[in-house]
Specification:
The complex is a heterodimer of chains A (103) and B (329). With 103 residues, chain A is an all-beta fold. Chain A contains no helices and 7 strands. A 5-stranded mixed beta barrel of chain A has the order 3-4-5-7-6. A two-stranded antiparallel sheet of chain A has the order 1-2. With 329 residues, chain B is of the alpha/beta class. The radius of gyration of chain B is 19 Å and the shape is globular. Classes of the chains: A mainly beta (103), B alpha/beta (329). Chains A and B meet through strand 3, strand 4, strand 5 and strand 7 of A and helix 3 and strand 4 of B.
Chain lengths: 103, 329
């Protein structure tokens, strides 16, 4: 299922809440989902062979939101700019995040 | 000791079975004051030991039976709640991130990681309860199936079905019944988060283990130099290298070279790499091994003259950690 990446923010103290939760862990106020930039920085990366073919993946920082996702591109390096071009929920009801290098 | 003398039964497991501590108590003919189950993923076992220690130290109980058991297909294999892992939910993905960071930052090599697996499998060959008793070589680790870069099949532990148990007694009770008692002298535990997102910002070591180790050393009035034997959470070979640093055996970044020198006897039972990883049972097996070593009951794998031992047990990429120090005096 194709997704729309949004992050909860506290309605009162406006803090970002990640991992997502309906209440702010600081003041327990309700949160509201907002879009953030889909452009991030690659903090670490490597290659998985579990699926039978090489798949690059890594840790991405999206304005302080850290998550693990797949990474595509010809020139992947530590600190490079990546863009989330797809996200959603797969057939196992796991979320997925897909990034590619570039802006 | 009669089952009627056991005051508490604590069951460590990530299973979803109901009322399991009470069921175990009934099946063993025990009517405990307190029966409870502990689930804290991979460090459930040592968390259960801490609970038993607390019950005895508070005076609520004089004895506690700590039992850990897990089946291979335990729901504890992954943490479904953690959406920050995306589709990379398996533990090998965070272990790979730690390994890549260590290689990049400190120059740790694949061969050094392989040496951890070789050492622990050699130790496991002397342990009749180990899952893998066949020795392996560095070449075999390096040639084993590549799962990620840089982790190969033999760098990884296996989930398995298994069980372990220990009996904790008060100091007064043990002095009457145990010939060579081993004491819990230091405990440290720390939980920083459940999600991996909080770990991802600093992959240089396991923050929870560093805090827990300091607390345990302080409580035991010991330093890393006092540790003669240690059980380390080697779910992946890189985790043992990082543990050397988090526990203060070596400076940050020197873990890879430490495995080549082997200055502290580590994972003498074979570790998780050699014994397998029945999640809720692992921490209790670690405590049982250090207890056996300190009481001189470790048989073919006995470390001579050891007086102080340490257990290092992690959960979910190091989001929580337990350190327990044991001693004979």
């Amino acid at each position: 299922m194709k997704g729309d990446f949004r992050v909860p923010f506290c309605r009162t103290c406006r803090d970002r809440v990640w991992p997502p939760f309906e209440r702010c862990p600081t003041c327990l106020s309700k949160t509201i989902f907002k879009r953030i930039s889909r452009m991030g920085i690659l903090l670490e990366f490597s290659t998985s062979f579990i699926s039978g073919h090489a798949q690059d993946f890594g840790i991405v920082d999206l304005e302080g939101v850290h998550l693990l996702g797949s990474v595509q591109g010809n020139n992947i390096f530590l600190g490079c700019t990546v863009v989330m071009y797809d996200c959603g929920v797969d057939e196992n009801i796991r979320p997925f995040y897909k990034f590619r290098t570039g802006t | 000791m009669s089952p009627t003398e056991i005051d508490a039964v604590i069951f460590s497991s990530c299973s979803s079975d109901q009322y399991s501590a009470s069921i175990i108590a009934e099946m063993l003919g025990i009517k405990p004051k307190i029966a409870q189950r502990i689930d804290n993923l991979c460090n459930s076992g040592t968390t259960a030991v801490i609970s038993g220690y607390g019950l005895i130290a508070s005076g609520l109980c004089k004895s506690a039976l700590i039992v850990g058991a897990e089946s291979r297909n335990s729901p504890g294999r992954t943490l479904g709640w953690d959406v920050t892992r995306g589709s990379f939910a398996l533990p090998i993905y965070w272990a790979t991130m730690y390994a890549r960071n260590h290689m990049r930052t400190y120059g740790t090599t694949e061969e050094q990681m392989a040496m951890v697996a070789v050492k622990n499998r050699k130790n496991a060959s002397k342990n009749p309860n180990a899952l893998y008793r066949k020795r392996i070589t560095v070449d075999e680790v390096m040639a084993s199936k590549r799962i990620t870069y840089p982790l190969k099949l033999l760098d990884c532990s296996s989930l398995c079905t298994g069980a372990s148990a220990i009996l904790l007694l008060s100091e007064v009770m043990s002095s009457r019944r145990v010939e060579n008692p081993v004491y819990v002298t230091g405990i440290g535990a720390q939980t920083n988060s459940a999600s991996l997102s909080k770990v991802m910002s600093d992959m240089n070591g396991t923050g929870t283990a560093k805090i827990a180790a300091k607390d345990a050393y302080d409580m035991a009035k010991k330093t890393p130099k006092d540790i003669d034997v240690a059980e380390l959470h080697d779910a992946f070979s890189i985790m043992e290298i990082m543990a050397y640093e988090d526990l203060g055996f070596v400076d940050r970044g020197m873990g890879g070279r430490f495995v080549e020198k082997g200055m502290v006897a580590t994972n003498t039972r074979g570790g998780i790499l050699g014994c397998g990883h029945p999640l809720g049972a692992t921490g209790i097996s670690q405590v049982a091994e250090i207890t056996a070593q300190l009481s001189g009951d470790a048989g073919r794998r006995q470390v001579k003259g050891c007086k102080t031992g340490l257990v290092h047990n992690l959960s979910a990429g190091g989001t929580s950690a337990t350190i327990i120090i044991l001693g004979v005096d």
